[in-house]
């Protein structure tokens, strides 16, 4: 079963009737640890693919490093929007790389990464503290990358960093 489907199913199983609140998903720390493990596995498998070519057209990736002190000073809504921006740029980078990678192993890993990142976008869109639809017109800090493994590294850092801390912050409010 595709991992993105697992994430969505986990979410749907934990939605409280009457209002979409993925509280239990955030409150169960084992789930984010599972997603971090999956990100590490994807990065490792991509690194083991034989003869992955450099991308002829560089892809643009979000810079996902952050200062914990600055992060703590942001509202959950700002954090959510920042992660959504990073994920949107990452999904675009994966899609661009997919068009350039014909090698089966690399293409398979990129497809899995695409599904995972999109699942997180769907999940984060369910959390909203401000009225109005999410606008993808954001411009996170970014860099160009020609190595496919850099895409997986960025995803792992995003899941291990901002996403994990965001879930941790939500858990403090929702899991009392």
From TrEMBL:
GO cellular-component terms in the record?
A: extracellular region
A Gene Ontology annotation in the biological process aspect, one of them, is:
positive regulation of hematopoietic stem cell proliferation
Q: Give one Pfam family.
A: EPO_TPO
Top-rank taxon: Eukaryota
Which compartment or compartments is the protein found in? Answer: Secreted
Q: Which residues form the signal peptide?
A: 1-20
Q: Does the keyword Secreted apply?
A: yes
Please name the GO terms that the record assigns under molecular function. Answer: cytokine activity; hormone activity
The record's section on InterPro entries has: 4_helix_cytokine-like_core (IPR009079), EPO/TPO_CS (IPR019767), EPO_TPO (IPR001323), Thrombopoietin (IPR003978)
The family annotation for this protein states: Belongs to the EPO/TPO family.
Protein name in the entry: Thrombopoietin
